[in-house]
Write a structure and sequence with these properties.
Layout: H1 2-21, E1 42-53, E2 60-70, E3 74-80, E4 85-91, E5 94-95, E6 98-101, E7 104-113, E8 118-127, E9 139-143, E10 146-150, E11 171-179, E12 183-186, E13 189-190, E14 194-196, E15 199-205, E16 216-220, E17 222-228, E18 234-240, H2 245-249, H3 254-265, E19 276-277, E20 285-286, E21 293-294, H4 300-308, E22 316-318, H5 325-343, H6 347-359, E23 363-366, H7 370-376, E24 383-384, H8 386-397, H9 404-411, E25 419-420, H10 425-428, E26 435-438, H11 440-451, H12 461-468, H13 478-481, H14 484-501, H15 503-517, E27 520-522, H16 524-535, H17 540-547
Parallel strand pairs: 1-11, 18-19, 19-21, 22-27
Antiparallel strand pairs: 1-2, 2-8, 3-7, 4-5, 4-8, 6-7, 9-10, 10-16, 11-15, 12-16, 13-15, 14-15, 17-18, 20-21, 23-26, 24-25
Amino acid sequence: MQNHYKWGFPLLLASSLLSAQSTIGATSIGDSIFITEGNGGIDTTHYDLDIQWNDKTEKITATAKIDINTTQKLSDFSLDFHGLKVTSITVDGIITKFSRKKDKLLITLPKLLAIKTPFTVNIHYEGKPIEIKESVTFGWHSVPEGVRALSEPNSAKNWFPCNNHPKDKATYSFHITVPKNYDVIANGIPGKTLQTDNLKTYHFKTREPMASYLTLISIGHYDREELTAKDGTPIYNYYYKGITPKDKKVFSSQADIMAYFSEKFGNYPFASAGIVAAQGENILAYETQTRPFFGTPASEQILAHEIAHQWFGDLVSLDEWKESWLKEGFATYAAALWLDHKQGNGFLTNWVRNSYESLMGIQKIPKEGLSKLFKAFEFKERKLTKEEVSKLISLGSKGKEKNKKALHKALSHITEDGISNYKLDVVFNEMSFPYFNLTFPQFGTFMDIISGNPSSKEIPFETVIKGLASAPRDVHSLDQIYSSGVYTRGALAMHSLRIQIGDKKFFLLLQTYFKIYKNHHANSNDFEALATKITGENLDFFFKSWLEDKIIPDMPKYGLYKKNYAQ
C-alpha cells in the first residue's frame, strides 16, 4: 500500500494535468522557421475586420470578428497579435478572460468545447500599430500618402489578431473607415462605399479562403479601373493618382497573362482579379490575393510573376515557410513561360542560360558608366597603370581583342602616371565588347585590379555556388526564404522537370496539383508524389539533386556544366 500511495498519487496527478493541458490549443503551429507563429486547436473560417483609421493620430479602433472551428477539445486557445491594446473579448456573445504573452493573445473559452464545434470570437482593440521588424514587410504602417498594410511573411499580426500561418486559411470581410478624402483598397470584391459626415467606409469581401500574409490594406489616393477578363472574371485595378501613362501601360497585358496562365495551370482561381500600382518603391511587388501590389515603375516580368502567384502560393499555400520554392520558384518560371510565349525568338533558351550562369557566379558588368558605379560603391580612387588596364581589357574581350588600332587608341588615354579608376570610361568606350562577362574567379581578378588590394584569401568556387545556388529545400531562416536558390534554382528545377517528363505530363501535373490542393496547402513531398503518380517514373534522384543537393546539377541539354565556370 505504501508503494502504491507513493507512486500512484503523483502519476494520477500528472495524468490529470496532461488531460487538462490537452484541451489547451498549442501556441505554435510548428513551423521550422517562424517557430512561434500559428496556433493549435483551431481552424479559422472567416475574419470580419471592422477598422477605423484616424489620419491625425495614426491610431486605429477596430473589431475582429473571427469564426472558428475547434480541431480538438478546447478550453483555451491563442491567436497571434502584436502591440495593439485589447479592450474586450467575447465568445459567442459572452465576455471572456484573456491575457497577453509577447505576441500571443491567450483566450479562455466560457466553457469546454468538443472537437469540430464552431464558435465566434469578437476582439475589440485600439492603438497605433507597431511595425514588425523581423519580416519583409512591416504590416500596417504609415506612408506619405496614407497607410499601407502588407503582411508577408508574418506581419499581419500587427493589425489584426490571426492564426498567422499559411496552413490556416479563411475568407475575409473588410470594413475600413477613413476620412472622406482618402481611398481604400483591400482584397476581394469591392462593395458599396458609405459616407457619413466626414468619413467614408469601404467594404471588400473575398469568396475564397486566404492566408493571413496575403491580406492587403492600402489607404491613399487612387483611381479605380474596372475591366473584365477573357473568362468573365471582374478586374478591379487601382492606380495612384498622377501615374504616368508609361508606368500604367506596363499593366496592360494583365488580362492576356491571366488567360495564358489559365490555359497552362487551370482556370483563374478567384472571384475577382486586379492590381494595385502605388507610387515609388519599384523593387517591391507582392502576391496579395486577388490584387497583387506593385511599386512603380514595374515591369512585365514582375507583373507576370505576381499574377502567377495567384495559383502558386495563393490558391495552394505552403505547408511550411521552408517550402517557399513551391511558390517563388514556380512563379519565377511562370513569368519566363509568359515572356517566352509573348516574345519567342529563343527567349526561354536565353533565360535558362542566363539564370544558370547567374547561379554560377557569372558577373555581367556594363562597361559604360563604370566610373559612376565605382563612385556609388565608394571604391577608393587610385591610378591604374597601362599594364593593369591592359589586363582589364583582356578580361572584357576574353583575350581576343583583334582590333589593334582600337586597343592602341584606348591605351593612349593613359599617361605615365596612370589613369584614375574613376575615369576608365574613356578607355573602355574605345573597345568593342559591350560588357564584362566574368566568371567568379575572373571577377575576383577584376576587383583586385580596380582596388589595388589583391585578396589575401581566395574563396573556393564551390563555396560561392553553394551560396548563390543553395538547395531550394535547404531553407532555415528568413533570408533564405528569398534567396536565389529558392527563386532561380527553384525555377530551373521546374524547367528541368519539364524536360525530364515532357510537356504533356508536366502541364497535366500542374493542373492536377491545383485541382487536388485547391484552397489548401501542400509541400514538396506532395508535389513529388503526384509527379511520380502521373508519370509512372521514379523521380527520387531528380528531386533530390535539384532540391536537396548542395551543388546545382548540370543542364546538358543547354551545354551548361558547372565545371566550366570554375576557371
